[in-house]
Fold this protein.
Amino acid sequence: MNVDELLLDRHIIVCTGSGGVGKTTSAAALALRAAELGRRTIVCTIDPARRLAQSMGLEQLGGDPKLVPVTTGRSKSKGELWAMMLDMKSTFDQMVLEMTTPERAEKIFENPFYHHISSTLAGTQEYMAMEKLWELHEEGRWELIVIDTPPTRSALDFLDAPRRLTDFLEGRFLRLMMLPYMKAGKTGLRMINFGTRVALRAVTRITGSDLFADVADFFQQFEGMYETFKQRSKRVRELLQARRTAFLVVTAPTEPSLKEARYFSERLTDEKIPLGGVIVNRAHAVPGVAGLEDPNSLAARAGDGVLADALRTYGEWRAVSLREERLLEGTLGAIKDTPVWRVPDLADDVHDLKALREIGQLLADAAR
Amino acid sequence: MSSMPTSLTASRVAVVSGKGGVGKTTVAAALAIAAARAGKHVLLAEMEDREAFAPIFGLRKLAYTEQTIAPNITGLTVEADEALVDYLRMFYGIPTISRALMRTKAVEFATQTAPGLKDILLIGKVKEAESRRHEGRHVFDLIVVDAPPTGRLPRFLDAPRAVVELVKGGQIRTQAQGVLDMVTDPKRCQVVMVAQPEEMPVRETEETIETLSKMGIALGPIVMNGVWPEIRSLGKEPEQTLRAAASDAGVDLTDEAISVLAGVATTHARRARNQRKAMKSLANDVSLPQIELPYLFTEHMGRPEVEQLSQILAECVT
């Protein structure tokens, strides 16, 4: 399947990959191309550089979907491009409001610990990205939803994090720890083993107990919501496993990045999540040419000038290109039936629709 | 630019950070090697299990236990849970607590519930190494920290202040205050930003520098990584220029060769020019010296490549 077929066929496209590989740019370029192919598309990015927002004609991206002024060329096209940024906190707030009574929600919002959970706890961003995906899907306004994933150290964090958050929220251990602080749970303390009691005392001494009181209060307010949390997490997972979903793994043509891309691709397959393809950004494809097999000795003959510069530069990039090809074959060759699309390194930075369109075109033209 | 002090070792702790993918780990390793060659005792510390340094030093992975990984270089992976156990052992002196803690997952609990606790444990370990003395002398002359990427860096370095504000008393507050003192003392700690000469990384570097300055954190020189060599322009008619030059030099090239050469050289020259522009724009906005590291035309950063970069950084080790 090529990129255009994928963009026309799917309902959800998730761009994943480790940080700094051009994930957000790829997501925006794909969304723009889908819109220009006639689909009503939304791209939800996590933390776009201001410049990228501006490149889509938006002063800045906010939590609400905004229509990107795209002139599709084909006046009859019903394609649209919408863009938004994930607002982690307001997504969490919204979810809490839906899950509980307004009074309880209010109490939760006032809790300092909730602020920590909703803004910094590992896994929250990933969970909220998925929650937002579900919301956009439910809204039914868009034929295609392209979602960018948080810039995690490892792409795998993204798969594991939501589970970590739900585990954390319903964690037996946590509630056990909080027992002494929960009004109803005082008698439970006797049941805790000695080790835990010692540990609990140590941790209390270190952190100061006002913090624990907040935490205990938070968990009391959250009582009964764990199940809902889990169910929501489960239904998003089902959405991710649906046939009309595709994950794209974005990578750079470097060894660590490619190895991670392979590992992640295998993980996706294990988790029964459909893998649409691998995008290798900033690839260097310099062809071999008859007569240019030994550019350096030609450069030596050419003396000192533009020709020598050009020959040496060609030699360097041709070598990079060959190494990248071998590396690609070595790491991604093993992933059968998965398309690999190479996007060449561009001379200019990407900061307008024209450049995004160009990347979309390169993706569409790319072959394994 | 040359008139400004460009010392990467102006403070005992060099926190190396940058946008993901700009090569901060490579730069951190190169700095450690350069300083070690200059006779300094260096601690190279990575935050959590990143396994990034190990291959450069020919190891499978770094451990939480300090180990010599190269002449004059001690390597260490700082893990939050291990750091907490360390910390408890130091202040409470009961190893059994540690084992009980590990068993009950209390560490995970504590680091997840208390804001910034995990970060403070990580930097706390750095602080411990920074102030460690043996026979009255500092054990380490330089501590190179491979810090979280710029997106997480301000929060990481802000953790001690946040804890000081949040936790009213107890050991952790004292500890946090100690870390805060170190982080905000330019003689003890500076942040070395690694950037790539492209618009977006440069923009992000500027934003981070602004944020860190407001937090009272000192900044060292910026390391500009992956600078492409400049080549002579082929002018408006690249193919014609090359054809003429080939004929002058008596080098026989096919039309296809000329066309490919012109394409590669033009793209390269254009990108190199854009890089210069990005560096200039950064110099205009931020009054920090920039140290240039060349692009190495390789996708693999092994020991030889890091050594090569360390030769350049050596000039900025004082």
